[in-house]
Amino acid sequence: MQFKEISEAYEALSDEQKRKMYDQYGKEGLSQGGRGADPFDIYERMFGGMFGGFGGGGGRRTGPRRGEDVVHHLQISLDDLYNGKTKKIALTKDVLCGTCNGSGAKSGVTPKKCDGCDGHGVKVVVKPIGPGMVQQMQVVCPQCKGKGEIVKDSDKCTQCRGEKVEKVKKTLEVFVEKGMANGNKITFAGESDQAPGMEPGDLIFVVVQKKHELFTRSGNDLIMEKTLTLHEALCGFQFTIPHMDGRVLIVKSDPGEIIKPDDVRSINGEGMPLRGNPLVKGRLFIQFKVEFPKKGSLKPEALNSLKNVLPAPPKALPLPTGDEVEHVHLSSDTVSIRPESNGTGHGHQHDDDDDDDHHQGQQGPGVQCAQQ
Asked: pTM for this structure?
């Protein structure tokens, strides 16, 4: 179990549990500030005795510790997620120095183990936080700066200058499968930064889908909007859709079909391909908007023709008369009517033009890379 996980588990305990663990397992080793003792052994002994260990036992860890994974966001267009694509990613990473094989010293020189951390590169610092309570923190050893060893300046490797690692440039080919979705991960095992005595972590690319001009995505389905004129909505329509694989779809209404505002129609098999089985595709949904004629655009003879072909309006009731009757005039307002939050009435409010922008997540620190 890694130190970070042990520390997080420890911090989740109550103060009483921490005090009991310290009294039972940690006094001897922690009172020395980690000097002369393996800080990982101290924590594993404490947690192993308290809970029976992690991963089937509380004994000393075996094998090299594993480095941190490095995660990058990979901006991918919907077209590339539909068709699949191989992207070349140029990156810079740490690798063990080829001249000194990660020792940091010249040939024939043996680095001296740091006596400040006993060669671990880290120290456990104990800080009292109250009566009978302490807080343990892992800090990088200031004497060796986390290397666990000390090499005199005159004995340092001339290639890495005692850093044990050097920067190299590498190009990876990242294959984006057909049907991959926002949040899917592409993992390169062991391609993270290297460090002496540690197994390198993984390099992980997380897919971030870009906005598309025509389609939006919902699972394996695609959604688009199409605006029809009133003539097309009533009398029929035909239009084309440029699909993302280069095909052009011809869409035609059925004879006598009438489209109302916000009607939805679907086309089977024209959505996104299923990841792992790209021959299977979702649906393409088309949501229709109907554009009505503008004020004054219909001539009187056209209105008369429409009255003759359209269904007659409901029979008008006799209009009331008297002093209480008042004729009013309708005006055009660009407001959005919404119910009030307390549900006791209705109100209206103007739509704001300045909506908050959506922010994309920032890429965290790690291997530096550039998309090509």
From this structure: 0.64
